[in-house]
């Protein structure tokens, strides 16, 4: 998935319980320390009080926070972007995206085996 274009409007549905989310669900989170972010949420099976936030943009590294830092969470339902805004991709960005996808595939292979 390509990064969300700058200036997009994201429409979300309020989430009351973290347990109701599936892993890798795109969410708008309001947190005590990070403010408002748009990330994919990965729940930690070992530590229920930790979540990992992953950006669709491969230039940003995932990071983990305590779930009690989250003040509000909204599951993204729609992303509205302008049609006249063209994404300019250079070869370096595409290489980073492919490398990130390869790492994710390798990680999934390790979990399966």
Overview of the structural elements:
The protein has 113 residues and is of the alpha+beta class. It has a domain at 9-86: SH3 type barrels, CATH 2.30.30. It has one helix spanning 91-112; strands at residues 9-14, 25-31, 35-43, 50-54, 63-66, 70-80. A six-stranded antiparallel beta sheet has the order 1-6-2-3-4-5, with no helix packed on it. Strand 2 and strand 3 form a beta hairpin. The model has no long low-confidence stretch (mean pLDDT 85).
**pLDDT < 50 stretches:** none
Helicity level: 10-25%
Taking the alpha carbons of the first and last residues, their distance comes to 25 Å
Would you state the CATH class of the domain at 9-86? Mainly Beta
How many distinct helices? 1
Rg over C-alpha atoms, rounded to the nearest angstrom: 15 Å
* Biggest β-sheet: strands ordered side by side in the sheet: 1-6-2-3-4-5
What would the average pLDDT be, to the nearest integer? 85
Major sheet, described briefly? Answer: 6 strands, antiparallel
Q: Per CATH, which architecture of the domain at 9-86?
A: Roll
User: Structural class from helices and strands?
Assistant: alpha+beta
The CATH topology of the domain at 9-86 is given as SH3 type barrels
Tell me what portion of residues adopts beta-strand conformation.
35-45%
The arrangement of helices and strands along the chain is: EEEEEEH
Instruction: Give a count of the beta strands, DSSP E runs of length 2 or more.
Output: 6
3D shape: globular
